[in-house]
Design goal:
Layout lengths: L10 H8 L14 H7 L2 H6 E6 L2 H8 L1 H13 L4 H5 L7 H10 L5 E20 L5 E25 L2 E5 L7 H14 L5 E7 L4 H6 L12 E2 L2 E2 L13 H9 L8 E6 L17
Parallel strand pairs: 4-5, 5-8
Antiparallel strand pairs: 1-8, 2-3, 3-4, 6-7
Helix pairs in contact: 4-5
Length: about 280
């Protein structure tokens, strides 16, 4: 979708209603949508919202082509069902496992970064020599801060590309993910990160689905009343509005990030087949 084709009518009012930490459209910090459209195949853009920051899409397409192609193929094959959506589990549900099954065999591994900070100081100071004359003499000192980097984790890393999926976690999870991306990037461990979450366009689908399901397939109830599926996906969970807000604010530091939103086109049994006419 070109920049001029983005429907922004009512966006500011809707953002205000949703809260100050929601953004429904990228700011000037994002790359031009025309660049994204030129690098992302049309069949991927049909299934996902795609927004690029700090030239992420160019880096992937031009410098990390092999890894990019693997991610594109995984996204192309990624298909969910309405039953998966309705079933409890959050980020431990069957939906994130679909990508794991595709990426782990291709050596996309959970990776933790750690490291010590070694700081070398150098200066010159006057010191008396053997003759008692003050001479400017080089001095050095080394300071080591052990475990300066410790415990930052990314679910999928291959070579210098990071990838993560947040289906339905608390939205603060994005802060952790983006900080991890930034830490890996500043340390030279990655060149770019890719983060997938729910598109806002899924919300109308959630509202039309049947009641939420427990992990065992039984209907989830609250006070004896079936719980609507939409209640699982509140405004304070991980979705594109929460992610774009953070990327617009620069929470990714200097790390290039490609943000991807899962659209209804990823659901294999949606829209539902029309009922057969009565005989």
């Amino acid at each position: 979708m070109a920049d001029d084709d983005i429907d922004t009518e009512g966006t500011e009012e809707l953002e205000a209603a949703l809260g100050s930490d929601v953004a429904l459209r990228p700011s000037d910090a994002a790359d031009a949508q025309s660049i994204v459209d030129s690098k992302i195949p049309a069949d991927i853009r049909a299934k996902y919202d795609v927004i690029s920051y700090r030239n992420a899409v160019v880096i992937l397409a031009e410098s990390r082509r092999a890894e990019f192609d693997e991610l594109l193929q995984a996204l192309r094959e990624f298909t969910i069902t309405t039953t998966m959506i309705r079933t409890a589990g959050g980020n431990e549900s069957d939906i994130p496992k679909l990508l794991s099954e595709m990426l782990r065999p291709q050596n996309w591994f959970e990776t933790i970064i750690s490291g010590d900070l070694v700081v070398n100081l150098a200066w010159r100071q006057p010191i008396a020599n053997a003759r008692g004359k003050m001479v400017m003499t080089p001095q050095t000192k080394t300071i080591t801060r052990e475990r300066y980097l410790d415990g930052h984790k990314i679910d999928y890393v291959k070579n210098k590309v990071a990838f993560d999926l947040e289906w339905n976690s608390k939205d603060q999870t994005f802060d952790r993910d983006l900080f991890a991306f930034s830490t890996f990037f500043q340390s030279g461990a990655i060149d770019v990160g890719v983060l997938v979450t729910r598109s806002a366009s899924l919300d109308p689908v959630f509202r039309q689905l049947g009641p939420a399901l427990k992990k065992n397939g039984e209907i989830d109830t609250k006070d004896g009343v079936p719980r609507p599926t939409m209640q699982k996906f509140g405004a304070s969970t991980t979705w594109m509005g929460k992610l774009i807000y953070r990327l617009n604010a620069g929470r990714n530091g200097g790390c290039p990030v490609l943000a991807i939103g899962i659209k209804p086109e990823c659901i294999s049994d949606w829209p539902p087949a029309p009922e057969a006419p009565a005989a």
